[in-house]
């Protein structure tokens, strides 16, 4: 994972992103004029605990309307209860036929399907949405450039569509929240979700903390020796892009290692990427072009 500078996403940010992706974008893709959202469905689907007032506040708020070009036409139910329902008119859909989706009867899980004719395009849109506020630490480079690059490498080294989509989401659980796993599974399938889960080396706990860096990396190295080839390709492409980025920054004279976790630093980072090289050599073989590219990138890291 390329080091990322993560502004804290508020609960309201996460709820708005969830509603936009799982209700509103799906409704627009279907050419609907209206969409109905029930607060309790959102609360349950996101796995929230005692956050119903926040959900209702977002659904009733002007920011959601402004960001998604909506008009709130009806609100029913208690002010902050699970049965509070919001009916929105979707502006400029280009259709005159009024339909609605998103109620509990038609979508009991509260997770609308968003993967349309192009699964990859919808995945790219979701990846851009959830990483929108993130930048590579110490730079102004949008973090989404990393996941796009990893996905491109997956395709270049022979990966299929599921693996390319997993490349877009490989940091979603770690950097954006573990709850995205069920969203990915519902929209892009079990295989994609399994690859993403297997590429994740740790998620934050309720206090926003992770286990110690060295422990997580040692565990992930052991894990990579056992993973499927599907997972190995995506992980290796992730690490290749990381190594290339580090080497490029070093050539430019940047103090790259100062950006990393204080438990890592230069020595820890070089240890980890060298150990990864051993794993990739063992799993891919010396003649594999992906291994060759990764080994060259690590030499570029350690030689500067």
* Termini separation: 20 Å
What spatial form do the alpha-carbon principal axes imply?
elongated
Classify the fold: give the CATH topology of the largest domain: Hypothetical protein af1432
Uncertain segments: 93-117
Q: Tell me the series of helices and strands, N- to C-terminal.
A: EHEHHHEEHEHHHHHHHHH
Number of domains: 2
Secondary structure layout plus pairing:
Elements: E1 4-5, H1 11-29, E2 34-38, H2 39-45, H3 52-59, H4 62-68, E3 70-76, E4 85-90, H5 119-130, E5 135-136, H6 144-156, H7 161-169, H8 172-176, H9 180-188, H10 190-198, H11 213-224, H12 229-251, H13 265-284, H14 289-302
Antiparallel strand pairs: 1-5, 2-4, 3-4
Helix pairs in contact: 1-3, 2-3, 5-7, 6-7, 6-12, 7-10, 7-12, 9-10, 11-13, 12-13, 12-14, 13-14
Characterise the protein shown here.
With 304 residues, the chain is mainly alpha-helical. The protein has two domains: 87 residues; 184 residues, Orthogonal Bundle (Hypothetical protein af1432), CATH 1.10.3210. The protein is 55% helix and 7% strand. The chain contains 14 helices and five strands. The strands form two sheets. A three-stranded antiparallel sheet has the order 2-4-3. Strands 1-5 form a two-stranded antiparallel ribbon. It starts with a strand and ends with a helix. About 8% of the residues have low confidence.
What is the gist of this entry?
The chain is mainly alpha-helical and 304 residues long. It folds into two domains: 4-90; 119-302, Hypothetical protein af1432. The protein is 55% helix and 7% strand.
């Amino acid at each position: 994972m390329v080091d990322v500078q993560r502004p804290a996403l508020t609960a309201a940010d996460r709820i708005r992103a969830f509603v936009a992706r799982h209700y509103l974008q799906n409704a627009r893709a279907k050419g609907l004029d209206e969409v109905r959202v029930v607060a309790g469905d959102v609360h349950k689907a996101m796995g929230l605990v005692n956050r119903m007032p926040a959900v209702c506040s977002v659904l009733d708020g002007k920011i959601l309307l402004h960001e998604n070009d909506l008009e709130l036409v009806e609100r029913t139910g208690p002010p902050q209860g699970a049965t509070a329902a919001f009916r929105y008119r979707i502006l400029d859909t280009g259709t005159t036929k009024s339909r609605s989706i998103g109620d509990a009867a038609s979508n009991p899980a509260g997770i609308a399907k968003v993967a349309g004719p192009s699964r990859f395009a919808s995945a790219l849109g979701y990846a851009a949405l959830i990483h929108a506020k993130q930048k590579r630490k110490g730079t102004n480079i949008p973090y989404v450039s990393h996941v796009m690059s990893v996905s491109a490498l997956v395709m270049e080294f022979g990966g299929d569509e599921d693996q390319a989509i997993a490349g877009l989401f490989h940091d979603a659980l770690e950097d954006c929240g573990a709850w995205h796993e069920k969203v990915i599974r519902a929209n892009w399938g079990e295989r994609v979700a399994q690859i993403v889960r297997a590429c994740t080396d740790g998620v934050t706990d309720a206090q926003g903390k992770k286990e110690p860096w060295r422990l997580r990396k040692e565990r992930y190295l052991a894990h990579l020796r056992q993973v499927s080839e599907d997972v190995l390709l995506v992980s290796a492409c992730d690490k290749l892009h990381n190594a290339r980025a580090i080497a490029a920054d070093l050539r430019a004279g940047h103090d790259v290692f100062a950006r990393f976790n204080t438990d890592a630093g230069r020595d820890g980072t070089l240890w980890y990427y060298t150990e990864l090289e051993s794993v990739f050599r063992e799993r891919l073989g010396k003649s594999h072009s992906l291994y060759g590219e990764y080994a060259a990138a690590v030499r570029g890291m350690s030689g500067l």
